[in-house]
Amino acid sequence: MWGCTTRAGAPPTVVITIPAAHTPLPSTTPVLPTLITTAASAIDPTSTRTAEPVQLPSLTPSATPNPTLTAAPSNINPLTGLPADPVALAQRPLNVKVSNAPACVRPQHGLAQADLVFEHYVEAWATRFTAVFHSQYPEVVGSVRSARMLDLELPAIFSANFLFSGASGGVQERIDDSDFADRSLYALDLCPILCRVPAESVPCGERAHTLFANAHAGQQWFAERDSDEGLLAFEGWTFSKQAPSSAGSAAEKVDIYYANAPVVWTYEAESGTYLRAQSGAPHVDASSGLTHRAANVVVLFANHVYSSIQESTHWYSLEIQFWGEGPLLLIHDGQVFEGEWRRWEREGLFEIFTESGEALPLRPGQTWFQMVGLASTVVYADGGLEIDPEELPLNTPPTSP
Fold first, then answer.
1. pLDDT, position 231
2. Residue 18 covered by a domain
3. What global pTM score does this model have?
4. How many Cβ atoms are within 10 Å of 211's Cβ, its own excluded?
5. In 3D, which of 238, 235, 229 has the Cα closest to residue 345?
6. Is residue 24 included in any domain, yes or no?
7. Could you give the CA distance from residue 237 to residue 244 in angstroms, rounded to a whole number?
8. Domain-located, residue 6
9. Kindly report the CA angle at 268 between 264 and 274, in degrees rounded to 5?
């Protein structure tokens, strides 16, 4: 494991410069609207929900190749379907853990350059991001925060390196014992890869939000030490500039009512992308000031349970069981398509396919994955979608067997 929680000697020189802060988004807790629960078309996947947390996934390798994954040419990014530098694509992707709470951490740096962004619940129903970089490696990403249990799966899925600020004892122990331990790097100060900036230079004004990653430096550091001599080859998803031939419902607007940071995606027909807002204001990139936009928004439904790992005095770590299979919603080109995801192998991309088993193509470009629980409510109304993510009952530790 390359990582540490303290650094001896004088603090390293901070080489990351944070541009002038943008006005932070409102920090007030939103009032959630009441959703219609009697819609004619609504996903109800609760029948597959398990009652007890699964401590470690047990994945059964497929006997046959995954029919919905394809080998991409050497100059095409298998995560975006776009042309990219073959030299960059010959290396592993890089995952970086990025904060999204409290509201003053927005706008963040680096998310606009990520190929994929995963947003998911953490304890107390705030959300956090894992950004996946495979074609661009910005020099400022963050602020960087601690890993969660979903990050036990994502480095294996993408055969990725991983930068984060650390983790609670139980999560860190699992990362240290994982199959990607040697591809993980965490520290409080490890410049020029993970660097602290003065608290007064960040909108929150707190030390907890002053760690930023240099993805370019981190990727170089990992590449020099990669015992596998680069990326383990993996197949990519199917991409198409044309919408799927199967009929989709209108999705001009998508509301995802995360409890402490609701998300709205609004379709912009001119660009064919979705513009993102969070907590009632445009979600912008800190470096450019431009609103985040996605070619695809994919809502992934997976079982959410409390683990036995305690994150704080009052909260246990939330385990998102992203293995096996489950429903999904693919949103692009102003439409939403119902499908399924499947992950029966630990390493390699999960499949995205229709109910009939055919590949469900993504639009080339950046994809944001919105993780929600299996008991989440989905309502189709007024040419758009309203998704109310599942919140578990009052937090208690799981019952011991």
1. 59
2. no
3. 0.84
4. 28
5. 235
6. no
7. 14
8. no
9. 40
Instruction: Give the H/E segment covering residue 171.
Output: helix 169-176
For the chain, the domain total comes to: 1
Q: What distance in Å separates the CA atoms of residue 93 and residue 137, rounded to the nearest whole number?
A: 10
232: Cβ–Cβ under 8 A, 6 or more apart, which residues? 92, 159, 347
- At 209, give phi and psi (nearest 5°): -115, 25
Name the residue type at position 163. Answer: L
Cα 162 to Cα 377: distance, rounded to the nearest angstrom? 32
Q: What are phi and psi of 221, to 5 degrees?
A: -60, -45
Does the pLDDT of residue 19 top 80, yes or no?
Answer: no
For the chain, state the CA radius of gyration: 20
Average pLDDT over residues 159-182: 91
Residues 325 and 341 sit within 8 Å (Cβ to Cβ): yes
How many residues are given for the chain? 401
- pLDDT for 70-106, tens place per residue? 777 778 999 999 999 988 888 899 999 999 998 999 9
pLDDT over 70 at 369, yes or no: yes
- 27 in any annotated domain: no
Answer whether the bond into residue 312 is a cis peptide, omega within 30°.
no
CA 96 to chain CA mean position, Å: 9
Range of the domain at 45: 39-388
* CATH code of the domain in which 253 resides: 3.50.90.10
Q: 301: alpha, beta or left, given left = phi > 0 and alpha = psi -120 to 50?
A: beta
Q: Tell me the CB-side half-sphere exposure of residue 300, using CA atoms within 13 A.
A: 28
